[in-house]
Amino acid sequence: MRARRYAATLALLTLPAAAQPPVQLAPVTVSATRVATPSDEVPAAISRREPDAAELGVNLSELLDGVPGLLARDRNNYAQDTQISLRGFGARSAFGIRGLRLYLDGIPASQPDGQGQVSHFPLAAADHVEVLRGPFSALYGNSSGGVIQLFSRDGGARPETRLDSAYGSDGRQRWSMSLSGPLSPEAAVGDFSFALSRFETDGYRDHSAASRENLYGKLRFDLGEGRRLSLLLSHFDSPEALDPLGLTRAQVQADPRQAAPAALLFNTRKSTAQNQLGAVLSQSLGAGELQLLAYAGQRAITQYLAVPVAAQAAPGSAGGVVDLASDYGGADLRYSRQTQWLARPLNLVAGLSYDRLQQQRRGYENFVGADLGLRGALRRDEDNRADSLDQYLQADWHFAPRASLLAGLRHSRVAFRSEDHYFAAGNGDDSGGRAYSATTPVAGLRWAARPWAQLYAAYGTGFETPTFAELAYRPDGEPGPNLGLRAAKSRNAELGAKLSPRVGWRSELALFETRSRDELVVLTNSGGRSSYGNAGRTRRRGAEWQLVGQLAPDWRLQVAGTWLEARVQEEYRACTGSPCLTPNTTIAAGNRLPGVADQQWQARLDWTPTPVWLGFVEARYLGSVPVNDRNSDSAPAAALFDLGARYHWLGEHWSANASLRIENLLDRASIGSVIVNDGNGRYYEPAPGRGLLLNLGLEFH
Q1: Per-residue confidence (pLDDT) for residue 275, from 0 to 100
Q2: What is the pLDDT of residue 8?
Q3: Considering 76, 326, 356, 671, which has the largest number of Cβ atoms within 10 A of its Cβ?
Q4: 414 pLDDT band (50/70/90 cuts)?
């Protein structure tokens, strides 16, 4: 019923265009399906966003605001990554990002097991981000509930220097510098682009100060004879980010700025460092192109948790300090070709990809004697390895002047192996391994019903393996990894329309349904350790729509809305304690999936009275969000407003801009994000009240 109301709303919004001659807008080019294509010609929901000079320029959630179906929540806690879910996938993740595939200039930011992070994404170097939703996400393999790709700026034909800074409430400060230009003034041998940024904050909440540095560089070489080479360099360092932890509902009501008492007691904090190198070599071969991408990197994390001393007395406890060193790398070999079949254009892509992850995972007690928050005795020592090998094939056939078929097939194999080196009384050998494999087909049909109306339908399958964190512990408390976990399987269907009925107006609508089985869920969460199992069947269905329109020469409107129903279809049993010897909690059919909002709306109105002035107002509404599988509590719905203005100066060889934003204009209390199924009931991470953000930028060219 609600889906029909969304469709009716879209129809009403586009009705005034009926009297106007239909004119097709210039299409936006996207590459989420591996071939640069006008977005209107892709039978999938794809969004493209570019940086806004009036944003902080630190969190990826800033670039994702307004993407239908996507919920990116700034946790105001830099010891944890941005919380991102797409059509309900990824909402259960308590740390990092899972269920979605992440890429930076083509290099995976998701590990073979499906766990990912975006803290190292360089917003100072960002050109745009693309978000692929729906069935065609399966073309990227394991844990592809959606695909998010950030693309950095290329170096131009002339040198450019950019200096940017931002200053906001709660001690937020960000400085950025970027350099770009040609490698040689005499010949077009290539170009370069580098960006360096530093961010500091005192934090909105107590015990939440943080700092981070980011360096990103790209060199592109034209080697002649159709050969090109790109080199990519990334460095990220967050020496210490304090973690205020989540709060209970009573603590939020008493003081949303406080840290959980356990955070102060154990001085919870996290340090992260990552270095990465990548290379992309491409060779033109007549009507085709061969491309090889290779990358390697290291990521080190040390995190102090608030695991009670008593809980660490259990023989199987991993302690309260995580020391994780990761070496990762991989390669992707791809061949693409433009040809014809039955005298109609055909684009083919075939590829082979390999990714590996090697982790040295150590756990220590978070106390020394009576002193808490210090690294103590060793409690966990294991080496983990994950390898994935995928083959994929896709074809885009324009079989008629106004219709095309996009189809793809991917086979994935993901192998896990854990070698345990820590043995003690009551703590046996936790070594073990398992491999998962799946073949995921997908197909979509597009039809241009009118020059300004593109209709499409798509269907595909997907799968999601457990991560190392989910395989770590058995629910019955016995030694060894949880090798009984199965990969979740899903079937995805989507219907959509992309409309450009008049000059300056564009609207999109997507109706979707995803049915999953063997959904990965939390069975126990106690004493600092969680164990997982497979639920029965779940269903996600909903509607997404967006509208962009020029209301008047000086006024521009952007609106995006999402309705999402994500529910358990078959009841399953969980536990209230650990180990889980006898499940004693029923998760009923019909319960909402935790971490998922049922409604989400965003709107922005821009006013440009002169070419140098911009005023804007933004509105966001988020429906209630259940915090656990039992649906015993939820974060309340909230509506927030921002107000801002920007001024732009333009000189002969320079330009400058200044912007001021009032965040949460009405000073509404709200929850920034939720920690799903937290064992201590500390589900809530409060969002800031009213704040100010000032941005200053200067560019020389």
Answers
A1: 97
A2: 39
A3: 671
A4: very high
In angstroms, rounded to a whole number, what is the distance separating the alpha carbons of residues 574 and 591?
Answer: 14
Which among 647, 645, 638 has a CA at the least distance from the CA of 693?
645
Instruction: Report the alpha-carbon distance of residue 539 to residue 508 in Å, rounded.
Output: 23
Please provide residue 545's backbone torsions phi and psi, each rounded to the nearest 5 degrees. -150, 155
Cβ atoms of residues 216 and 122 within 8 Å: yes
Task: Please tell me the total number of residues recorded for the chain in this structure.
Answer: 701
C-alpha distances in Å from residue 265, one per residue of 201, 365, 366, 396: 22, 14, 11, 58
3-class secondary structure, 144 = coil
The 3-class SS string of 192-245 reads EEEEEEEEEECCCCCCCCEEEEEEEEEEEEEEECCEEEEEEEEEEEEEEEECCC
Strands 101-104 and 146-152: parallel
Percent with pLDDT over 90 in the chain? 74
Q: Report the alpha-carbon distance of residue 33 to residue 19 in Å, rounded.
A: 35
Give residue 390's pLDDT.
96
DSSP, res 630: T
Does residue 70 contact residue 86 with C-beta atoms inside 8 Å? yes
- The pair of structure tokens assigned to 533 is 């199992």
Which amino acid is it at 233?
A: L
Locate tokens 């990103």: which residue?
216
Beta-strand ranges (E) seen in 29-159 are 29-30, 37-38, 45-49, 70-73, 83-86, 97-98, 101-104, 107-108, 115-116, 126-133, 146-152
349, burial (CB in 10 Å: exposed 0-12, middle 13-18, buried 19+): buried
Amino acid at 182: P
Distances (CA, A) of 578 to 98, 112, 248, 528, 681: 24, 29, 21, 10, 16
pLDDT, position 187 = 61
pLDDT of residue 528: 66
Q: How far are the Cα atoms of 156, 195, 230 from residue 181, in angstroms, in the given order?
A: 5, 12, 14
Residue with tokens 């976990």, as numbered in its chain: 485
Give the model confidence (pLDDT) of 190-224 as tens digits.
Answer: 999 999 999 999 999 999 999 999 999 999 999 98
Q: How confident is the model at residue 97 (pLDDT cuts 50, 70, 90)?
A: confident
Residue 15: phi, psi to the nearest 5? Answer: -60, -40
User: What confidence tier does 156 reach under pLDDT thresholds 50, 70, 90?
Assistant: confident
* Buried b or exposed e, range 293-306, using 16+ CB within 10 angstroms: bbbbbebbbbbbbb
What the chain holds in terms of domains, given with CATH numbers, is 2-176+325-359+387-415+428-700 (2.40.170.20)
Distance CA 466, CA 264 (A): 32
Tell which wins on pLDDT, 575 or 225: 225
Q: With beta carbons less than 8 A apart as the criterion, state whether 684 and 247 touch.
A: yes
Each residue's pLDDT tens digit, 662-701 = 999 999 999 999 999 888 899 999 999 999 999 999 999 8
Inter-CA distances, 350 with 54, 315, 332, 337, 391, Å: 41, 50, 11, 9, 8
pLDDT > 90? residue 344: yes
Q: One-letter amino acid identity for 555?
A: W
In sequence order, which residues have a C-beta less than 8 Å from that of residue 687 and are 6 or more positions away?
74, 76, 204, 640, 664, 670, 671, 672
- The phi and psi torsions of 583 (rounded to 5 degrees) equal -55, 130
pLDDT-derived band at 92 (thresholds 50, 70, 90) equals confident
Instruction: Please name the helix (run of DSSP H) or strand (run of DSSP E) that holds residue 387, with its range, or none.
Output: strand 378-400
> Looking at the DSSP assignment, which residues form a beta bridge with residue 649?
656
| For residue 579, cis peptide bond before it (omega within 30 degrees of 0) | yes
Closest CA to 467 of 124, 205, 96, 218: 96
pLDDT at residue number 662: 97
Compute the average pLDDT of residues 314-339.
93
Residue 333 neighbours by CB under 8 Å, 6+ apart: 290, 291, 292, 293, 351, 352, 353
